[in-house]
Design brief:
By secondary structure, the protein is of the alpha/beta class. 33% of the residues lie in helices and 27% in strands.
């Protein structure tokens, strides 16, 4: 079969993105799909809390090159500071002060290229790890996890997704929000599922996410979580923009209790397992429509 990558994202945290990701993955475990779920929320990964059966297979360290300035060779010309687009060089030339702000560094190497005096070398800084868990089905949960104190998750997200390159179906549990981690995740997807809720805040964040995906030319559909608790503004917006509503999930006590216990509704309720399997087929159908266009 043709490989497909589906990102599950949301404009903000708490909408149910992980609920959808983990249950979709779990519902397809007994299928013949060669599948991986990638937890790209490296700042606070929690898919593992719901998918406990997988056994740890490997742990890969993710590092980044960080500049080291040899002040005995530095002439304090300031060229490295000029070349840095991320303000990661703290420089006061007239007082001969220069230092690296490692938490702002993106490891691009521009400063070392700029230096004409050999004053800048590089060291490896540990950013986090990519953990791989394998299930009896042969499917995998791939988890990106940042080290405490690290501020930038981009490299960990890249390496986590790269680890899933041999699977037929890849589900990406995206970081919340619409910042760089979100963009780094969804731009690798063939289709994006946006999870929202029927509230003014939910609609506002949904609009922002959809505008970004339009700019990136990535097709998307929407799932409304806690669908029976709010207003119809989200549904009206989807009709207006001709964006498919893939699924509606009601505010359900059984779901809430299961989630609070770290359990998956698709493991304890066969009806919901069937619904999530149907969700996968709905996503495939919508993706095929877009491909034909």
């Amino acid at each position: 079969m043709t490989a497909i990558t589906i990102a599950i994202a949301s404009g903000k945290g708490g909408t149910g993105k992980t609920f959808i990701s983990t249950n979709l993955f779990n519902s397809l475990q007994d299928s013949e799909l060669n599948m991986a779920l990638v937890d790209c929320d490296a700042e606070a990964p929690n898919d593992r809390e719901f998918l406990k059966e997988g056994e740890l297979q490997s742990t890969q360290a993710v590092t980044q090159k960080v500049p080291v300035i040899d002040k005995s060779k530095c002439t304090y010309c300031g060229k490295c500071d000029e070349y840095c687009n991320f303000n990661a060089i703290f420089f006061i030339g007239k007082h001969s002060i220069i230092d690296v702000l490692e938490e702002l560094c993106h490891g691009c190497g521009a400063c070392s290229v700029a230096c004409e005096y050999g004053a800048i070398s590089e060291k490896d800084e540990l950013l986090g790890h990519v953990n791989r868990y394998r299930f009896s089905s042969g499917n995998e949960l791939i988890e990106g996890r940042m080290e405490v104190g690290v501020h930038i998750s981009i490299e960990i997200i890249k390496e986590s997704i790269k680890a899933a390159n041999k699977f037929d179906l890849v589900l990406l549990d995206s970081p919340p929000g619409t910042g760089c981690p979100f963009i780094q995740t969804v731009y690798r997807a063939d289709y994006v599922v946006l999870v929202t809720e029927p509230t003014p805040f939910g609609l506002s964040d949904l609009k922002q996410s959809i505008e970004i995906l339009k700019e990136m030319q990535i097709p998307c559909g929407v799932i409304i979580n806690r669908a029976d608790m709010g207003v119809d503004d989200v549904r009206n917006y989807l009709k207006q923009e001709n964006i498919p509503l893939l699924m509606s999930v009601p505010f359900d006590r059984e779901i809430a209790v299961a989630y609070s216990k770290g359990e998956l509704i698709t493991s304890i309720n066969s009806e919901w397992k069937t619904k999530f399997k149907q969700l996968y087929h709905t996503i495939k159908e919508e993706f095929q429509k877009v491909k034909i266009k």
